[in-house]
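WARN  no MSA supplied for this record, continuing single-sequence
INFO  ligand: adenosine-5'-triphosphate
INFO  echoing inputs
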Amino acid sequence: MEKQKAHIDKSNTVIKIRGVEKSFADYDVLRGIDLDLYQGENLVVLGRSGTGKSVLIKLISGLLSVDEGTIEVLGNEVTTITERALEDLRIRIGFSFQNSALYDSMTVRKNLEFPLVRNRKGITRKEINTAVETVLEAVGLSQTINQMPAELSGGQRKRIGIARTLILNPEIMLYDEPTAGLDPITCIEINDLINEVQQRYHTSSIIITHDLTCAKMTGDRIAMLLDGQFQRVGTFDEVFATDDGRVKPFYDYNFIQ
Ligand SMILES: Nc1ncnc2c1ncn2[C@@H]1O[C@H](COP(=O)(O)OP(=O)(O)OP(=O)(O)O)[C@@H](O)[C@H]1O
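INFO  complex generated
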C-alpha cells in the first residue's frame, strides 16, 4: 500500500537527543549523537548489527543511563528524571520490542485487557470492552478475540503485540526490529500497519531496523547510524545518494543480489 502523506509538525520535537555518548567497557557504542523526532513522523534508525540501535531505545526509555549528553522525551529530561516520573512517562510511550511476547495462557482479549487494567485505575468493564474491540479492529484482527496466541501466525502475533501497546494510546511508538523473522509478505503487512498506526493514532515513531524495505516503506526520514554517530539523516533517497563505502553495500545487499 502506498504511504499516505503524514502530518508532521516540525515545530514540535517530541524526542530531542543532544551529544549522547555511551560506552561498555572499552567499546564506545554511541560517540556523540544528535537526533530529533518530530510530532507525527516515522523516523527510521538504520544500522548494522551491533551499532547500538537497541542501546539507543533503552537510553530513550531510561532503561540505560547515558555517559554524556541529554535526552528530552515529551518535555522530560530522562537523564535526570525521578524513577516515579519515568514510570509515568513510559505509559505515554508504546514499546514494540522483538521479545515483547504475548502471554500464552491468556486469550487475545485477556492479553489486550492486561495493560488497561494495570494502568487505568477505575476503568469500567464497558470501557475495557470498547477499547479492546477498537484496537483489534485497528490492527485488522477482530475475529481473533477469543483465540489463544498459539493459534495465531507470527504476523498475527506481531499485530496483537502492537495492539497491546496501542490500547494505552501512546504518544510515541518505539518499534525495535518490527519485521524481524517474518516472511516478505507479512513484512509488508506490518509496514502497512506501522503507517496506519501513524495516520490513525497520530503517533510519532522511531523504527529500528536493518530491513531496507521496511525503512523505505515506513520512514518519513531515515537516520543512519555509522561508527557511533548519525552520519546520514534525510529521506531514503537522500541517505542512499552516496558512494560512501559504508552505505552502498548496505543498499546493494538489500536490493541488488
Ligand atoms: N548491557 C550491555 N552491556 C555490555 N555491552 C552491551 C550492553 N548492551 C549492549 N551492549 C553492546 O553494545 C553494542 C550495541 O548493541 P545493540 O544491541 O544496541 O546493537 P543493535 O544495533 O541493536 O544490533 P542488532 O541489530 O544485532 O540488534 C553491542 O556490541 C553490544 O554487545
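The first helix runs from residue 53 to 60.
INFO  checksum written, moving to next record
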